[in-house]
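Archive entry. Fields below.
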Amino acid sequence: MDTTDTTPIIPKPVKQKRFAGFRKSLTDFFASLYNINSFIIRFFKEAFLPPYEFKEIIRQCYETGVRSFTLISLTGFIVGLIFTKQSRPSLAEFGATSWLPSLVSIAIMRALAPLVTALIAAGKVGSSIGAELGSMRVTEQIDAMEVSGTNPFKFLVCTRVLATTLTIPILATYTGLISILGGFLNVYVNEGTSYRTYIGQVFDPLSFIDFTAALIKSIVFGFTIGIVGCYQGYNSSSGTEGVGKAANGAVVTAMFLIFIEEITIVQITSWFR
Amino acid sequence: MEKQKAPIDHKNAVIRVHGLKKAFGDYEVLRGINLELYQGENLVVLGRSGTGKSVLIKVISGLLQADAGTVEVLGQNIDQLTTRELQALRIRIGFSFQNSALYDSMTVRKNLEFPLVRNRRGIGRKEIDTSVERVLEAVGLAQTINQMPSELSGGQRKRIGIARTLILNPEIMLYDEPTAGLDPITCIEINELINEVQERYKTSSIIITHDLTCAKQTGDRIAMLLDGKFQREGSFEHVFDTDNARIKPFFDYNFIK
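PREDICTED_STRUCTURE:
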């Protein structure tokens, strides 16, 4: 007896399912946006109300600076050196190597210093904040802080975000200076330009708006690194996997946002030039 | 060792919970809990893993919000408190976490100082040191003062966790699985410590556990949590003097015959 089922197979409503999945993703996306927004609003509500955590802010500033100092020094110097080295042949074709210091300073101060600093800090500081707070969340240390009469948001989040917002501009300025030093090494080796002449040429093309834009960028980048790291860590889910995700999410999201902010700020400042 | 009875004031309830409900998604963990903790009493909440025992004390301490019902702690309804008022109330409640929740980045001394420095602004160095030494002696770990939490054993971590809550002289102690993951000898030591704390600091406590030795040694009253409700309540003997097919095995499996 033939037992083959001859009933026509009714296709599953794939499109409907896909649509349902899409709708869920969309809902999750907007829910995340809402949560991030609430987190940022809470930061502004709590950060500027007493009691102030000055001691902890200073400690976090130190941590942020120290954590990135070596890497930033090395990267900044190499960026300046390599950028000058790579730009030299193009300028040499037009006999314009004397413009190298100006080119280096414009590229570094306007774009590279804040961007390189922010990317390094996102990797070093952002991931560290995400992992630290994530670990504190899963081991109930944040709850312990809360039940012992301490506001953990103020103590852990506000201090870290303020620290990164204050420290990244300082680090970016330092990166700029160390990169210019890297550029000087190349210029000195190839042309024997004195340090005094080089510095004069470096700062000559820079305007007030360049410094202001770099400062604003660094502040925005610093805030982004801090708030993203804290958001990911503070809201991490249970387990060690959650800690890893928080650290990873802190880096990836911060870097993505930094690039978007870079483009936006460059566009805005170009209207004022 | 049998618990030495401390006087219980049955007229004075320090915690009153009425009709408490709490759900996570579709799963209703607590389905109408009614509870009263009296002054000087040790109440043990027994139950299997995942029955909502820890959720109950997290709601009582304000770490989680109830979906329905009222929670009154030391005469204050926690749902109606402002953030600042809740913070002030929490200082009067000690919470000992299952995994101790010691701050990894701080030494034992800093861990103990933290709640004190945060809540008593302007406190002097001498007073801090005296308080730290006092609670460390109370838990019998004076020698660990400069150690990091990672250098301590599980039992030591539990003791330091308890010491950290004691530094603020709480009126109520909430213990979340105080003996979980410890060897039997250390379990007994922790149980003795819970009783010592009650006698010395005149605290009222809720002890969350599934360890019957702990329940028997520390509890003045036992409440058995099953299916989101207290199914049986009373003395240790009364709770297990039953043929209830879901309570009896709990006793049988704990004590290997």
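CURATOR_NOTE: Chain B has a mean pLDDT of 90.
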